[in-house]
Write a structure and sequence with these properties.
The complex is a heterodimer of chains A (about 325) and B (about 270).
Chain A (H helix, E strand, L loop, with lengths): L5 E14 L4 H9 L2 E15 L4 E5 L6 H8 L7 E6 L9 H4 L2 E5 L11 H11 L4 H15 L14 H13 L5 E5 L7 H18 L2 E5 L3 H7 L2 E6 L2 E7 H8 L2 E8 L11 E6 L2 E7 L3 H11 L2 E7 L3 H13 L1
Parallel strand pairs in A: 3-7, 3-8, 5-6, 6-7
Antiparallel strand pairs in A: 1-2, 1-4, 8-9, 10-12, 10-13, 11-12
Helix pairs in contact in A: 4-6, 5-6
Chain B lengths: L1 H26 L1 H28 L9 H18 L3 H11 L1 H7 L4 H31 L7 H26 L8 H15 L11 H9 L2 H4 L1 H7 L5 H36 L2
Helix pairs in contact in B: 1-6, 2-3, 3-6, 3-11, 4-7, 7-11, 7-12
The chains are: A alpha/beta (about 325), B mainly alpha (about 270).
Chain lengths: ~325, ~270
Amino acid sequence: MTEPAIHLHELCKTYRVPERESGMRAALKSLFHRRMQDINAVDGLSFDLNPGEIVGFLGPNGAGKTTTLKMLSGLLHPTGGECMVLGSVPWKRERTFLRQITLVMGQRNQLVWDIPASDSFELNRVIYRLSPADFRRTLNELTELLELGPLLKKPVRNLSLGERMKCEIAAALLHRPQVVFLDEPTIGLDVTMQRRIRTFIAEYNRRSGATVLLTSHYMADVAALCKRVIVIHHGRLLFDGDLSGLVQQFTAHKTIIVQLEDCQASLHAYGEVLNCEDGRFTLRVPKAQTAQVTERLLADLPVIDLLVEDPPIEEVIDQVFTQETA
Amino acid sequence: MIVLQEIRNLLRLYAQQFKTTFASMVQYRASLFIWMISQVLEPLVYLIVWSTVSNSSGGSVGGYTAQGFAAYYLALMLVNQFTYTWIMWEYEYRVRQGQLSFALLKPVHPIHSDIADNLSSKLITLPILAVVAAGLALIFHPTAAFNWWAGLAFIPAIILAFLVRFLLEWTLALSAFWTTRVNAINQVYFILMLFLAGQIAPLSLFPHWLQIVADILPFRWMLGFPVELVLSRLSPAQALLGLAAQSTWVFISLILIRLIWRAGVRVYSAVGA
C-alpha cells in the first residue's frame, strides 16, 4: 500500500462572518454589538488521493471546493479535522512542502503585469532555487507543450486571457511540483484553448507523475481528464468514485434515441418524448425499464436505428445538486 | 555553511528582483517623472517658506540661516528618498485581491521581495534625485559644517534609518489584515511623520517637550537624525545616542514584525485567503 499523496479526514472549515440587517438602526446596533454567524464552508470532508491520480473536484458555486483547495495548499487554517499533503501539514507552510506543491487559480494572476512572463519565470527560478539547467529543461518542456514560444517576450498585460492562463500555468509548474491544485484553470477560455489546456494537464500528469486535483465548471474538462470524481455540496461529500458510477448512482433515467420511417408516429406510450425531429425521437425512460421499452419499440415500430444513452454529464450533475437542495 | 548558502540564495533573489523592478519601472516613465516631482516639491516648499522666514527675522531662525535651511532640506530630500517606502499603499490591495496568497505559497518570506523591490527602485531614482538636488544647490546655496566623524557616522545612521522605517511601515501595512480602512491609519501616520520626523521643520525649532516626544518615538530616527548628523549639528554624544536609539528601534520592529506577521497570517487564513 502506498502512502496517499493527499489525505483528508473529517476536514472542516467554519467562517465567522458578521451578520447585519440593512438599515440605519441595524448599522448603529452593529457598532456596539456584532452578531456573528457561523458558516460551514467545509463540513467533515474525508478522502484520499493516491500519487499520480487526476481527480475532478465538483460542486456548485459555494460548495466549498476553493476553500478545500486553499486548506490543502496551506493558505487556510482548518477549523476541524485533519489534512496531510505529501506527509506535511499544509498550514504550517514548511518550505519543503511549499516547494512540492502548486495552486493555480483561474481567476487570479501571479505574473507581474508590466513585464514579459519570462522575467516572472526567472524570479520564480530564484525563489524556488532551481538550478539553471533544471529550469531551462522544464521551461523548454512547458514552452513546447503549451506553445508559449511567441508569448514569453511580450508584457503580460498585452496577452489575451487564454495566453495569460497558459503562462500562469507554466509559472506555477516551473518547480515541478508533485501535487498540483487547479482551481478553475479553464474559466472564461474559448473551447479551443480549454481543450489545449486539458491536453496539457493530461500530458503533464503522464510525464511527471504528479497528483492533480482539479475543479472546473466545464464538465468536458472533467470527463476528458478524470477517471475519478469527488462531488461535494454544502461542504459535504456527495460522491466519490468513477465518473460512470456517478451517472449510475444519480440518474434514474436513460435516453433512447430512435429513428423511425414514420415521422408522424406517437411515442408517448413508451416514455417521455424530449424531442422529435424528422422521425428522430428522443425518449426519456426510467432506467429499470430501458430493456423492456427498447424491446417493445423494436417489436411495434419500423425502427431504422436505435441508440441507448446515459444523459449528458451536465444534466446528471445538475440533477445531483437539485436533488440535494430539494 | 547553511547560513552562507541561505545568504547567497537571498542575494540571488535580490538581484533578480532588481531586474524585475527595473523592467517594471521603465515601463512607466511618465508616472515615474510625476512621482519624482512630488518627492522634490514638498521639501522645496518648506525650504522656500523657512528661508523667507529666516531672512525676514534678521537672518536666522533657531540657529538656521536661509542657507542652513537649504542644506537641511536638500539633505532631507535625499535621506527621505533613501528611506522612503510605499508598502502601506500596497498591502490592502494585496490582501483584498488575493495577491498575498501567491506570496504565501512561495517558499520564501514575502518581506524579501519587498526589501529587494524597494532597494532596486532606489538605485534607479536616487541618482536622478541627486542630480536634481545638485541643481537646486546652485540656486539656494546651502551651507553646512562638515566633519569627518559625522560623515562616517552618517553611513550606519542612514542604513539604520532605512531599516527602522522599512520594518515599521511594513508592520503598519499589515493592518490591512484586520481592516479595510488602511487609509485612515496611513493618514495619522503621515501627520506624525510630518511633525515628529523633522519634515515640516527641523526638530530643534520645536518646544522642548515636543523634542522629548520625538526622541522617544521612532519618527526622528527614520529621517531627522541622519540629516542633523550629516550637517554636523549634533555632538558626538548625541550621535552615539542616536545610533543606539536607531538600533533599539530596529530590534523592537523586528520583534513587532514577527508577532504581527504571524497574527496577521492567522487572521488571513481564518477568514478566507
